[in-house]
Each structure stands twice: as structure tokens, then as C-alpha cells.
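Quick one from the shared queue. A colleague (R.T.) flagged Glycosyltransferase as missing a structural entry in our internal table.

Convert sequence to C-alpha cells.
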Amino acid sequence: MSDAAVDDTVSTLAPGLAEATQAAGPRAVPARSGGGSIGIVHDWCPSFRGGERVLAELCKITGGADVYTLFDFLPAEVKDEFFPDVAFHTSIADRLPLVHKYYRSLFFLCPFLIEQFDLTRHDAVVTSSAAFARGVLTRPDQPHLCYVHSPVRYAWDEQFSYLSEGRLGYGPKGLLFRHMLHNLRIWDTRTAHGPDVMLANSCYVRDRIRRIYGREAQVVHPPVPIDPSGSEYVPNKDDYYVTASFLAPYKRTDLVIRAFNEMPSRRLLVVGDGQQARSLRSLATGANIEFAGYLPRRDYVAAVGRARALLFAGCEDFGIAMAEAQAYGTPVIAFGRGGARDIVQPLGSACEPTGLLFHRQTVEAVRAAVEQFESHEREISPAACWLNATRFSPERFRLQIDQALGEAFERAGALRR
């Protein structure tokens, strides 16, 4: 597809999306059951990332003015922009000295801490959970809608990966951690049937919910910020690749860096910060790999939007960064497990392709995927990527959450009868 055709496609489609956005607009769910309030519970707020974007949208949809979270480290400017008139209630552990440095190590206390939030004054409860939020105590007649980002990763199928990364074998410390994770699994299973309605953020998470909890969940993809005017869409690409994420071990940014160490003629830009930032910088051996660190949104959009393709080698529950890249017209090359399967229309699929999926987490697989992408690059148009991303609009998310809330009220009402 030529650049002119690409621009024509987006210019034709963008006004329709903008019109739909204006018509839908942010709105609160109508008051139910006597006009009471809705309390929103989120695991913790260390920074403003994908989960916190979902939280902000839930506050808009429900009109929720009270957020209950174990730890709150959000800057004041983020709260002013995304959480106006929202009160944050935190656990007593949030007052510990320098807790922002070690809050994750307190996971064994979190089930107890989450149960100390008193939500009985609220007419309904919405939980945004990747670990603990779902376990809040609710009344039998209190509607409870749970949006599941993931079952507790490190307590279930990813336990062995986390223990290995922490070098926790079968010594005293390793056995202690394994016992604490065993107890967490017991609590997690016990609380799995508390919500009236459970939503999953991807088909992958829906399948994990079915396997771990024996429950069915509807898939509601997270809202992806898509500029309805198409102004963030970048049809003309530069000659570099990008990987963008929080630099944590499970993101597998190391595989991408190792692959580009072996491809010195190809440029890679690493966007993001996190616990692995220092070790990943030392892993890069060539001048073809550049680290940008954390970028403000405007610079982030430009960096990802101009890239030839975004690479991601981890297994994400959904992966908002991949969906955002599509919204900027950027193809995605990703490991074909998890949320990437929901986001990317791969080469060879029935739909117009928007990227490529590889099926092994190895350096060799990443290299082969880049080479395959370059062989078929002309088949993947930026316009198709942008159009694909509109499936994840905030307007669609609001409608589905509203419908799910109605179902939760109906189920809770049936119990009262």
C-alpha cells in the first residue's frame, strides 16, 4: 500500500472514530439500588502503567470517588490529571518507612491487609486485580464485579520462573518462600468465587481463570488511548526497531538485546526503565543498541510511532504497549503466547496482517522473526495496524463494563430475593 493510500485510509476512518468518541464521551454508570456509591479496589499503585490506566477508566465509568489500594506511590500531577476528585485509601503498611523500595516483598501480608478495607458503606464494589484486590470482604447482597488482569502470576504457573530468578532453591529461604506461596494459593482459591461477575483482560487470562479457579469469565480488553483524530498515527517509518516496556525479568527484553547483539547492522531502541535497567545496559555489546530510559508520552509516541516495528519477547497477560504501537501504525513482532494473540493479526491470518508472532522464547527465534518480517514487510501496512487498534477503544471498554455492572447488580438482586 502506498503512503498516499495509507493516509487516505486513516483520513477516511479517523473522523468516524472521532464522532463515535464524542458521542460516547466519558460518563458514569447510572446510580443503582438506591443511588449508593461504588467502591473501587486496586492491588497497588506503584506507578502509572497499564493497570493504573484501567483503574482511571473504571473511576470515570462508575463515578467512583473512593479507591482502596494497598500502596500508593502515584505523583500528585498524575492524580490531578487522571484521578480528579478521587480519594485514595491505603493500607496501614503504606506508612512504613521507605516502603516503596520493598513493598513487593510484603506479598505474604497482602491477603490480610486487603481484608482490612471496610467497603460496607458502598452500594457495590469493583475490583481491579492482578493479585489481591479480589479478596476484599463484601456483604452477601453487595454486587461485586472483578476485572482480572491476571491470577497471581508468581503463585501459580510462573512460580518456578520467579523462584529461579530470585535464586531461591530448596535452602531455608527457598523453602520459606515456597511455603508462603503455597499459603497464598490456598487464599487465592478460597476467594475466587467472591465476585458475582468476573472479567478477563484477554483470552489467555480467561483460560487461566478457567484452569485455576474453575470459573468462566468474559473477555473485556483494556482500554487503549487512541487519538480519534489519527494525529498520533505515523505512516512513514525510520530504519530502527523498538522494544518498550517496564524492564522486569518476565518481559524478556534480554532476548531482544541478545538478538540485536548478533545483528549489528540493525538498530534497536530500548524504551523504559525498571529493576533490570542496569543489567540490560551491560548486556548490550554493540553501538547499534540505544537505551532511551523512561520517556514522557509525547516522546514515547514519537519513538514507537517512527519505528520499523515493535518487538516484544515476553508473555503478557494483555500488553497495552503492543496495542498502542498498533495505534501509531507500527507493526508488532511478538512472542505468540498471551495477549499478543489477541492484539496482533499475524502474517497468514484471514485478516490483513499487522505483525508477526514467533513461538519460542529464544534468541534464535527473535532473529528469525526479524528476518521474516523484513521479507514480508510490504504486506503489513501502517493503516491496517491503526485500524486494528481501534478494536481496543475506551468507548468499547466503557460499554462492556457498564453491561457487566448491570449483570452484577442483577445477580446480587437475585440472591436477595
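The two ends are 59 Å apart (CA to CA).
The chain has two domains: 35-223+393-408, 241-391.
Added to the table.
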